[in-house]
Amino acid sequence: MKSRSLYTLLTCIIILLALLATPSWAQKEGPSRWEKTIRKFEDADRANPPKPGGVLFTGSSSIALWKDLAAYFPEHRVLNRGFGGSNFSDLLHYADRVIFPYKPSMIFVYEGDNDIQQGDTTEKILANARKLRGMIRAELGDTPVVFISPKPSIARWKLKENYEAVNEALRKYAESEPDTEFADVWTPALDNDGMVKQDIFLKDNLHLNAKGYEIWQRVIAEYLPKN
After folding, report:
1. 169-204 tens-digit pLDDT
2. Does residue 42 contact residue 98 with C-beta atoms inside 8 Å?
3. Which domains does the chain have, with CATH numbers?
4. Given Cys at both, which of 9, 98, 148, 152 links 110, Cβ 3.0 to 4.6 Å?
5. Residue 224 and residue 49: Cα distance in Å, rounded?
6. What is the rounded CA–CA span in Å between residue 73 and residue 81?
7. pTM
8. 6-24 b/e with 16+ CB inside 10 Å = b?
9. Residue 11: what pLDDT?
10. % of the chain surpassing 90 pLDDT
11. CA-to-CA distance for 163 and 73, rounded, in angstroms?
């Protein structure tokens, strides 16, 4: 009994020491890690309030890094509210600060890429997409929502089957949901052999270069209203 008690005590001490040794950035998980970024959006909005009725783009780094987004769609008033390596859970948490206040005429959502990478199942990702769509409908009525498919990339090509499963689930869901579309940026990013194109990424083989965003431009333009 004594040896078991000693073993339990030592185990508790080891766990406690491990927790104390964990860097602060590792302990800070969840949506709160984006708070500074969201506050920067709010500061920018106070300095230059966006007019309601624009086309809103939100989601993870593929949106956040699209710095010249407006130049790709000059006929539309677009607003970029993408934030870093976010996932669906992060966007759900901040929807009342990065979606609802702008009262957009249309919303493009890019999430799922990081969700897949972190091991989320297709079912979980689809459930979060449904939840987000429900929140937007409750707050903004029949405002159209376009889910942009998680893109292929060289860096995450080993997860190809996971991406395909998520994209198929999102596509079917969008087809069944009013005022909801699915923009397929996966297929046009593949070559004739069904492999991901090699020349559409930055050096990290994950994020898009200008050529990659030209693919997105062509796809997304089909969903924007014709002026």
Report:
1. 999 999 999 999 999 999 999 999 999 999 999 999
2. no
3. 47-221 (3.40.50.1110)
4. 148
5. 23
6. 16
7. 0.87
8. eeeeeeeeeeeeeeeeeee
9. 39
10. 85
11. 27
Q: What gap in Å lies between CA 168 and CA 164, rounded to an integer?
A: 6
Structure tokens at 33: 């890690």
- Helix/strand/coil (H, E, C) string of 11-63? HHHHHHHHHHHCCHHHHCCCHHHHHHHHHHHHHHHHHCCCCCCCEEEEECHHH
Ordered DSSP codes for the chain: -HHHHHHHHHHHHHHHHHHHHS-HHHH--SGGGGHHHHHHHHHHHHHSPPPTT-EEEEESHHHHT-TTHHHH-TTS-EEEEE-TT--HHHHHHHHHHHTGGG--SEEEEE-SHHHHHTT--HHHHHHHHHHHHHHHHHHHTT--EEEEPPPP-STTGGGHHHHHHHHHHHHHHHHHSTTEEEE--SGGGB-TTSPBPSSSB-TTSSSB-HHHHHHHHHHHHTTSPP-
Place of tokens 């979606």: 99
Nearest 5°: phi and psi at 76?
Answer: -130, 150
State the Cα torsion 88-92-96-98 to the nearest 10°. Answer: -10
Residue type, 162: N
Tokens describing residue 4: 């078991």
Q: How do residues 125-147 score in pLDDT, each as one tens digit?
A: 999 999 999 999 999 999 999 99
